Amino acid sequence: MTAGRCIAMKITTKGRYGLRAMVDLAINSGSGHVALSEVAQRQGISANYLEQVFAVLRKAGLVKSIKGAQGGYILAMKPDSIKVGDILRALEGNLSVINENDDGNPVDPIQICLRQKVWDRIDERINSIVDSVTLGDLVSEYKRLNGWEEIMYYI
Fold it and tell me: Is domain 13-145 given the CATH code 1.10.10.10 in the classification?
């Protein structure tokens, strides 16, 4: 490694905007397809950029698109079946703190030690977190924060 080089996993704009747009879609798709232009407007994201993001999400099988005047996007599965990790991996690729190519094939005992005791363990924690939260969890939290909690009446 060279001096001054930082090893950090950072979620890109594509991942952050894609996750926001997926939460928006899950919240607003109860009555059918949602136009991407509406998601873009609500989220303050370029519609052209979202089209690129949603093309990746569609190829990953996370959303479905319908063309035409009444077209738009819907989730390909129920929100409780889509993990945050599914969305981020589709948009970001591997969620690792180091690039696999940085170490090559480590033969140096220090590199092996670092990989086993630090990098792999960080990766496991990251993947555990993003795979423990679903789109449904985020929608529920959004509704709770906005006072949209469902009121249960018992007779």
Answer: yes
Torsion sign (Cα): 72, 78, 79, 85: negative
The structure tokens listed for 77 are 């599965």
pLDDT in tens, 92-147: 999 988 876 655 666 789 888 988 999 999 999 999 999 999 999 999 999 999 88
Give Cα separations from 133 to 32, 35, 81, 96, 127 (angstroms).
24, 25, 10, 18, 10
pTM of the model: 0.83
**Where are the domains positioned within the chain?**
13-145
Share of residues in the chain with pLDDT > 90 (%): 66
The amino acid present at 141, given as its one-letter code, is: E
Long-range Cβ contacts of 119-128 (<8 Å, 24+ apart)? 122/97, 123/95, 123/96, 123/97, 126/9, 126/95, 126/97, 127/85, 127/95
Length of the chain: 155
User: Taking the CA of residue 33 as centre, how many other CA atoms within 13 Å lie in the half-sphere pointing to its CB?
Assistant: 14
The Cα–Cα gap between 7 and 98 comes to 6
